[in-house]
Amino acid sequence: MLSATQARKALRFNEARRLFESALRQAERFGENDPRLTTSLRDLADLYLDKKEYAKAEPLYLRELKILETFGNNYPDIAHDLFSLGRIYSARHDYTKADKYYRRAVVPIEEEFPQANAREQYILYSDLAENCKNLKNYSDAEIYYNKMLASGRVFAPGRPEMAEDLVRVAENYENLGKFEEAANFYQRAAAQFEKIYGVSGGSVTALCQLAHVRLRQKNFGEADKVADQIHKAALKLRGKQQVVLSTHIADLGSQFADAGRYSQAETVYKAAILVAPRDTTIGQLDTGRTLLRLADVYSKQERWADAADYYQQLCSLYERTSGRNSIPYIHCISYLGSSRTNQKRYADAKVLFRSALSCAERLPTRNYLEVINALRCLATVAHEQKQFPEAEALFKRALDISKKNIGPNSSITADCLHDLGSVYLDQQKYNQVLPIYRRAVEIYLSQPDPATLNTSLMIETMNALSVIYLSENNYAAIEPLCRKAIELSKHFSTSREAYGRTLSIYEDLLRRTNRLNQADQIAAEARSLQEHEAATTYSRLAPQLNLCK
Predict the structure, then answer these.
(1) Which of 96, 362, 410, 455 is 20 to 30 Å from 42 by CA-CA measure?
(2) Burial environment of residue 533 by CB neighbours within 10 A (0 to 12, 13 to 18, 19 or more)
(3) What is the distance between the alpha carbons of residues 482 and 243, in angstroms, rounded to a whole number?
(4) Is the separation of the CB atoms in 255 and 212 below 8 Å?
(5) How many CB atoms lie within 10 A of CB 263?
(6) In the chain, what percentage of residues exceed pLDDT 70?
(7) How far apart are CA 101 and CA 97, in angstroms?
(8) pTM, whole model, 2 decimals?
(9) Residue 243: which region, alpha, beta or left (left: phi > 0; alpha: psi -120 to 50)?
(10) Helix (H, G, I), strand (E, B) or coil at 536
């Protein structure tokens, strides 16, 4: 046995296994009441557990446990076996069974052997708390995490708390909705990481988690401060090639953007770019994703020139990494074309969209969506310039490709019908608009999953069709359209602008049909959106670009 133990400590596992198995065969001769048998079972099981050979370890522990329980529940090695079985079932993701054994292990430790090794208590409480968290039993996890920290202070009184433990405790508090406690532990974890390792991936990750909690609290002032800390840390980590950290920071940037904190999102995105590797393809692609998010933040603020600068960088990056005949490159020049369109630089936009179309047509695998998207974007620029014959021809071409290759009843075909109808609408060719928009709405409403649709474009189509019906006094056809558009707007949070137009049209209908109380309610809702106007212009380019986002 001594030789086997020494071999195990020296990590000579094959030798240790051979010796432990030999010892077990000899111990079998002494009978189950002999301690040499239980010791041999436990030693061999521990070896298998270390090697993650759970199927071999499990029956050995269960056999030893059955023998030990005949001596009484206060036998000290029972806790060891129960804990080990808990670890096995947890590793198999059978958290319910693991919970049963972990909790049984706690009883002798706390009741019969409170003087047990504090380090063993720390490990047991740590594993039990994690298992409770996996079971989403966060309240019990909180209890055992606190016991874990207390045991840690006992067995290593001079040692500072482990930053990793503080993070786990913070995550549990966050799951419980105790955000202030979570923030406190994330802050302590970040400080502990920095104290031990200096500014590092661990400290910055803890800061990202702290900022996330502050955003969940809507404590934007504190969240903004953390964003600045992250950027300062990133300056120190620049060039240390940490792809995972870069991705983590960029995700936080998106959380700031979703909260409308665009300045802080910009700060955090730039921090993500600073720590991303520059000399690997993975690092460059990670930087590309962050640049795209940053450009999108500028677009949301209508900072078109800034957005265009970053889209230009992306074009160069994807031309190097993916080549011109690739979908990422095509998307980037389309985004750049969109920015130029919003800057009213139509000639530049057309050049870019023509380039996107040319690249899409040369893709190794024919991708009709990319071709359709480029045609629609190019047509939109002509439409905005009131070059109606050119716009009509391009939209018709996109529609024909969609009908033939995507399907006559696809949502993409409906989007193309909307585009073509909008050209006729701006020329007041209502007889041509009406059948086109009717067909588009028919296709939209036939789709099995509205979540897959461009609901903003769908609502704009319904709105335009409703306006034409109003001009014809066809009130019966308007109400179901308006109700459906309102339902979609509320469910899918589509653009406030489109929703506001729907409310305005519906209010007009209600007043024309003498339902004044309902009309007043709709008018109040429209005013709350600050969109109480029956606008007749349509935002076309952004919905089209959603195809390639």
Answers:
(1) 96
(2) exposed
(3) 48
(4) yes
(5) 12
(6) 90
(7) 7
(8) 0.78
(9) alpha
(10) coil
